[in-house]
Design brief:
Blueprint (H helix, E strand, L loop, with lengths): L1 E4 L5 H15 L16 H9 L3 E6 L2 E9 L20 E9 L8 H15 L4 E7 L3 H9 L3 E10 L3 E11 L3
Parallel strand pairs: 4-5
Antiparallel strand pairs: 1-2, 2-3, 3-4, 5-7, 6-7
């Protein structure tokens, strides 16, 4: 498996990965409420690629997982008592991490997360923050297993799901 930044040529494959995942898992209890074309939107995907924030895992040339990593967070993140306070560029935030439906449970997501942690360390980030919608038990287990710590539950408004409770997680990077 190869880890790296997505290219503009990868847009259709990434969009297909998200849409396929949404279509095949929308009836599962841990489904995060994403909607095809709405979240992640085409504009979000393209902007993340252009701004060099979309990371992918490829195997035999095919994208099997992806995630957006940047320093942008929802306003509600400021209300959280993180161990490492975000000062604009010292905290990386993970958004829309997705593993292709056919590749779930095969270690692909763990590999993607491990490589994102390495990027964070190499770029001197102090922590990684993220949120997980309240019903997504699979994602909560995944992040906890990877060493992320639950910080609190925060009510956050996202256009695609409205006001919902999200569990806030943090991974402190020891250098």
């Amino acid at each position: 498996m190869e880890f790296g930044l997505a290219d503009i040529e990868d847009f259709n494959e990434i969009q297909k990965l998200y849409w396929n995942l949404i279509n095949k898992s929308s009836n599962e209890p841990s489904f995060p409420g994403w909607k095809c074309g709405e979240h992640p939107s085409d504009d979000f995907i393209m902007a993340s690629i252009v701004q060099k924030e979309m990371y992918v895992i490829r195997d035999e040339g095919q994208i099997k997982a992806c995630a957006v990593c940047n320093c942008i967070s929802n306003d509600e993140y400021e209300k959280v008592k993180w161990q490492v306070t975000d000062r604009g560029s010292n905290v990386l935030v993970i958004h829309a991490l997705a593993v292709g439906y056919e590749y779930r449970g095969c270690g692909t997501g763990s590999r993607l997360l491990k490589d994102i942690l390495a990027v964070a360390r190499n770029n001197k980030y102090e922590a990684i923050h993220l949120d997980v919608i309240d019903n997504n038990e699979a994602a909560k287990r995944f992040y906890k297993k990877a060493g992320f710590k639950y910080i609190c539950t925060q009510n956050i408004f996202y256009e695609v799901v409205g006001n919902r409770n999200f569990e806030m997680y943090e991974y402190v990077i020891i250098v």
